[in-house]
């Protein structure tokens, strides 16, 4: 019997990772196809799994699977999701719970009929709610905090789905942008602080409505931007039209600032702020904070490109693609034995000696998390002949983990939580290292008064974070794919 | 784009169908592999889907899929189901709910940890329990009655898993042979009337225990028969040994008599009665009840073989394989346009003119349900040149649907519930038609005092059957495979 | 990384194995669907791979794949094989060359257009022809002898496809029943000695023609039997009608006698002889040759059933199904460690202690090849309590390998070529052992004058067999599935 | 039955397309894994199919499949391709012949053993050679011109594989960069004019050799660049070392100039010329040829990026990413009914109104082929609010189809072959349109004296092109995937 070769997993790259993207469609004869296109545009928010639930004649239809949108959905699957309303979800590949059970949207049958929900975010009191619910007799099929929401929903009372959902959500604390589907309604909700984005659009051809995590999805769905769903707002769309509710006590807006630095697609506009422009402004500010005697500015593609362009513009240094990215990489690759330590990076990025040889390079990347990938990239650029490497991070030092829906390492693994800038510079092998300052970041996104969550840079957590696990371990039954 | 041809589904054959087979293993280093072999031997009880859940170091592992055991499980899947205890389940392909969600074993997380259950049978009060549970806030992921059991389990109290399971089962009414798995225990339960079979065996090599729907599974698992689980008995197997409990009030034993006629494998012994011998005795009795002037006895293979052998033995007529069965048929086949009405039968059975031409034939089949297939078979045999066809059914007329775990048509579709034997004889085109009598059936299985459920022949239902649906329709969200 | 469990291969059973089945259809709007049904009925002749080639508007369309007919062909594949003529092929799973390349029908483009052929049989001079062709510049894509035929075809001249095919076949020696397809013609050929069967039928609905290895395929295709293709006959079917040619010098008919004993389906009639009746007659003769004091006759299912019935009839002993076969076995199964030596047999067959305990059993199987399986079966029956086991083989001792299209072990592995009947009886653990005699076999099939090849029993080879490989090894490039 | 939705095929984009990439490895214990990595890096040269053939102990092993490298090869497939030498091939998805049969490397058995070849390029006399070969009795399994080469090889004589291959190639005319594998040798050949690239590298760890279409593959395989294989050179690598032969009469070097404009990866260096630098120089030249009063330079990503950067540098205009590319698109997508005419482009590209609104834009793309995509992109940019759009093509007008290995439309579909620049400008809806001139292109690649094929821009074909098909149509038997 052949011994299969070891397979490397791509998701091991050293970034914070968004956990989800969501879409909703109401009032279009090809609702599931539009949801599919919306997920296609939001694919950067999650590549682990994808799912769509549609509603047709009082019945919900679902399809979910592991993999990218184009792998999970073919024309046959879309044809089996009839109806004029649908929601969709893409999920990021976290190491542990990457199993079919954990795909979204979640869907259930309960005393009021059928209900489905797609969730972007993370609840901070999910563990204690789950404990309480289990004590009351609830049974759980997944380890997703989203399942807590549907259990609460099944236990509250209210005159309509919106009231019930409000009553359930009043018990949870955390980050959530939700799209929900009942037999007759599409509901969008954003948590009171608005950690994660959610936008409302109007379909140009049918006049129906769509919801999506980012505006870039509206463009492909054929919808025009109406407005952002406000923090704490619930939008209920039915054949009777669109209704806005404010079920929660007011709380300050705390939109995730990292969306602008890395997660969101550059062509999206979130809470009125254009992502690409933020990234270019970050480059301008970096040039002021960290001027360097250098021959060229080189981005780490793709996430460092806009900031590097901004730096080049502001500094007058030439902008060069000294690193070329291979866009054909799959989720895994097969590595031969005894390759160098930077091999994983090499599969994605190739350094150009013809550009870099003998040059002083300003190298711009979006962030430094564990520092491991940064060290490999510096080594790669150095091997290609660069004489000096001045590494700039277009975000401040990442010193705190996220509890609001972003996959981050523990604090102990965050290099900037443990080491000084000088130490990090030495550890990644650069000639100099510069970070964006927190103030400069606020300036680039338009001022602190806008209200952002920057806990990963500041350790200023807007909501109490869960106490470390009290010993009660979740033992989800593990189902194979 | 090519238009796919229409595909015929095999499951459309005209038999009653068993709904499930179950196995359990405790105390063997290759528990999931043994469970797989047990399901292999029980494959005749269900070909729609298969699943195994194993327990290893306090954690449950699951794999379930659509299709036969050999399709769902390869060596890779078995290797991913570690541990020394496991349960398994095969399910029959019913027309409607043939979806991935409805595969078993069911598994959940709840306040006492993890729990998994495989169920053979059917609850008669599932709908009302489900309604009550939903009112109390329960959410449902499937339309299986088994899900009601786990919801009840999560709401009762008790000192151990066995006590809690007893408390839950006291609320349900119906037929159930269950195998259950917790992190540390294998539990087998048979409902108070013992509608469906369940046997206990002991592994020859490891000394561990197994449970299975039929003894034929023991043989392949390498276990020797210990005894039948008694109606109303709960058997709890742990590292502390094996314990028997009697949690329910005594009720008369009412084992399903159809298991002996058709469902069970002929080499199984259920509640002390050898299936093959029953079928041969039925043949003997048929020969007394319905002697015929004929040239040969021909079985409809495979289910009519043993009874036909018995008839031949008792009558002295030659036994001939006038119908040959193709054992390589898959679950579906592609039929050209304009084939005759008996084409579906022809794909499975071929009549031999060299044997049948000009002959008077006693044709023995296990039962006549709707009558459609019987008519096709008679036509097939007639086309091959048989001069006279005397059709004998090795069961009494089927006049009532089953509510205890067998898939049967509505009463309106049961030909014997609507028509006299003379009418049926004419409808299926036979020269004469004879049924086994109910008394003779009792005699063949060893006497009425044994306690059987024969409601499908007698309309004598041991447990109240559910009132016709009160208008509240189950609308399960439909997930594609 | 999980270590997959070892997988056992079913094809390891101890029988001679037929290598192929072929069908052809001309003149039906759903030709590929009929070819599919024909292969369905011939599935017993080969389960490794299946393929169909159809002709439509002067163009050939092909689909071939590994696995059974129902796995390789769905409605989509059939829909992509348009046209009113088609040929099909099923192939037996040999251990070595089980690769996609070796699937049939073979199809090529050459100077006269397109040509496709399905082959049942084996050429004895393939190696030397291949050597000569390679010297002349031919390139080979497979290790099938059939590829030699198409190379010869491309090099000969002739006025039409039939003449060219005749010219090519005059150079080959061996066993072949061929179905061939050109853009406009269906051609069937049987080698001069007619080693392998081939029958002609007429479609009842369209009036078109079909060819098939056995008559059982005609029944399912909706065709009536016209006649056997004669040894040495070529049948050419086109829109101009059907033409018969006799391109070869006359040679005595030498139809494979093992077809009647084991390969063919019992309901087939080959060269005018009904297979099932032969098997029953063999049972009668066995009873005369080997009368036994016994309590019952038990067949090894399914191949021993008819002969056992014949033995029971002639001897007056009861016929009992002491071994039950599991018809749900897939091509492989996963075996736990440390199972007994007869485990492989146990997966397919279960012995019934309730029938066998304390009994003297006449056990009838079709043949004894290596003896390994026979020993396991005897052990199985003994373990179930049989007091005496009298093993009868419904064929004579197999003393020679086949070179004409049957997969057999080397002579060194044929137990009867190396050991006396007494020794074999001891080796398989039986109380007595009896073989059919060669004379009795001839009698059962209707007399020697019919002309059979019985080389595997007599070492009388009608055609010179290839000299042992002269050291030149075929090194086919191995392509993964 | 559900009607599947129509699926759009991505390959319909309006570019010339390279037909293949090749790699070869000799002298490394993980040769097939290195070949896999090489193909990974060459994935941009073909996404239709991928294949690897390895040689181990005198035997070749092959695996080929439809799809991208990461889809066709997993660790299991690589493990089944043992040996220290291997070749690999990726193929572009052309509309018609996208079938499993046409995957490469081709491999055969012939009188000298086994032989495998991967081919990048196109033969101009393949049809007439095939006709001649068929007359001589050759049979063809594919419609690839590469099959002609192996037929010739099987018919010539010579003292070793190199001599035979030379003798075969002397009969062909056209473009070919070949990697060939025998049981003991890796051979690389480049046609006398060197139309397609081929480079030689040395493995850093094992000292073995590699061949590849582009240098970017060397980097990932862990090899250092040795030199380009010269036009007309044959390199034979065996355990005896590396040998260079010049089997062909000298001919002027005519490397494909389009490799530099579009096909090759920017980080590759081909025949000593760095692709990225050529593209930037083209941008510089474009700025001199076509100065525009504008607010920004916007590339059509990814192929227009480097030229746009060059234009921005030379012109002093800001460089902006006004179009954002979605890199997660699969090979197909499902389009709802009634989407606008530019929908196909929208799935890949999104225009940023926040950047483009009210602006005068210089839009840089690599070429204009049919003009259809260019019109859609102009429309997209205009819809995002651009005030003026000045379209610049970084190649000269494409006026002639390619016969040397590039997939191009017929001349009748080449917009520049039919229309003036003014007409094209109007047809694509731009405010102005500028092409690179042929002279400027020569300047950018380093001067005409280098020797390029620019027939698609100049109609100056270095080799006679095939006369239009003489009515003899190739009717390949079509095998389904």
Could you walk me through the main structural features you see in this protein, from its secondary elements to its overall organization?
Four copies of one chain form a homotetramer. The first copy, chain A, folds into two domains: 8-253, Aminohydrolase, N-terminal nucleophile (Ntn) domain (Glutamine Phosphoribosylpyrophosphate, subunit 1, domain 1, 4-Layer Sandwich); 274-325 and 333-446, Rossmann fold. Chain A is α+β, with helices and mostly antiparallel strands. The first copy, chain A, has a seven-stranded antiparallel beta sheet with strand order 5-4-6-3-12-11-13. Residues 1-12, 94-98 and 469-475 of chain A have low confidence and may be disordered. In chain A, helix 1 packs across helix 7 (215-221) and helix 4 crosses helix 5. Chain A has 17 helices and 28 strands. The radius of gyration of chain A is 23 Å and the shape is globular. Chains A and D meet through helix 1, helix 2, helix 3, helix 7 and helix 10 of A and helix 1, helix 2, helix 3, helix 7 and helix 10 of D.
Give a short synopsis of this structure.
4 copies of one chain form a homotetramer. The first copy, chain A, is of the alpha+beta class.
Keywords:
Glutamine Phosphoribosylpyrophosphate, subunit 1, domain 1, homotetramer, 2 domains, seven-stranded antiparallel β-sheet, Rossmann fold, 28% helix, 481 residues, alpha+beta, globular, six-stranded antiparallel β-sheet, 28 strands
């Amino acid at each position: 019997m052949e011994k299969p070769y070891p397979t490397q997993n791509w998701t091991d790259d050293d970034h914070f990772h968004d956990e989800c993207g969501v879409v909703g469609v109401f009032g279009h004869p090809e609702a599931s196809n539009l949801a599919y296109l919306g997920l296609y545009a939001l694919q950067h928010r999650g590549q682990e799994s994808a799912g769509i639930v549609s509603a047709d004649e009082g019945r919900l239809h679902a399809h979910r699977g592991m993999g990218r949108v184009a792998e999970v959905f073919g024309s046959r699957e879309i044809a089996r999701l009839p109806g004029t309303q649908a929601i969709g979800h893409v999920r990021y590949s976290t190491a542990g719970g990457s199993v079919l059970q954990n795909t979204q949207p979640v869907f259930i049958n309960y005393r009021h009929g059928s209900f489905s929900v797609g969730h972007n975010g993370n609840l901070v009191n999910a563990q204690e709610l789950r404990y309480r619910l289990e004590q009351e007799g609830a049974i759980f099929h997944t380890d997703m905090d989203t399942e807590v929401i549907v259990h609460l929903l099944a236990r509250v009372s209210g005159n309509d789905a919106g009231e019930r959902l409000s009553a359930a959500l009043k018990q949870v604390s955390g980050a959530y942008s939700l799209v929900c589907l009942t037999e007759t309604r599409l509901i969008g909700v954003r948590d009171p602080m608005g950690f994660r984005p959610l936008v409302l659009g109007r379909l140009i051809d049918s006049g129906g409505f769509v919801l999506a995590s980012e505006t870039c999805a509206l463009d492909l769905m054929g919808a025009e931007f109406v407005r952002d769903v406000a923090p704490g707002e619930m939008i209920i769309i039915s054949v009777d039209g669109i209704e806005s509710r404010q079920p929660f006590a007011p709380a300050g807006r705390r939109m995730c600032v990292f969306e602008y630095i890395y997660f969101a697609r550059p062509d999206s506009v979130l809470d009125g702020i254009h992502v690409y422009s933020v990234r270019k402004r970050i480059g301008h500010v970096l040039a002021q904070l960290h001027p360097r005697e250098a021959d060229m500015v080189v981005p780490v593609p793709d996430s460092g490109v806009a900031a590097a362009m901004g730096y080049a513009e502001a500094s007058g240094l030439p902008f060069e693609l000294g690193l070329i990215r291979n866009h054909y990489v799959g989720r895994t690759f097969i590595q031969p034995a005894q390759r160098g330590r930077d091999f994983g990076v090499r599969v994605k990025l190739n350094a150009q000696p013809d550009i870099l040889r003998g040059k002083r390079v300003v190298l711009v990347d979006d962030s430094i998390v564990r520092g491991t990938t940064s060290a490999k990239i510096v080594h790669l650029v150095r091997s290609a002949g660069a004489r000096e490497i001045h590494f700039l991070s277009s975000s401040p030092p990442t010193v705190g983990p996220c509890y609001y829906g972003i996959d981050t390492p523990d604090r102990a693994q965050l290099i900037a939580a443990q080491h000084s800038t000088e130490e990090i510079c030495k550890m990644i092998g650069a000639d100099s290292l510069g970070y964006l300052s927190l103030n400069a970041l606020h300036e680039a996104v338009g001022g602190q008064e806008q209200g952002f969550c920057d806990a990963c840079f500041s350790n200023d957590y807007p909501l109490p974070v869960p106490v470390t696990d009290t010993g009660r371990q979740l033992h989800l039954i593990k189902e194979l794919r």
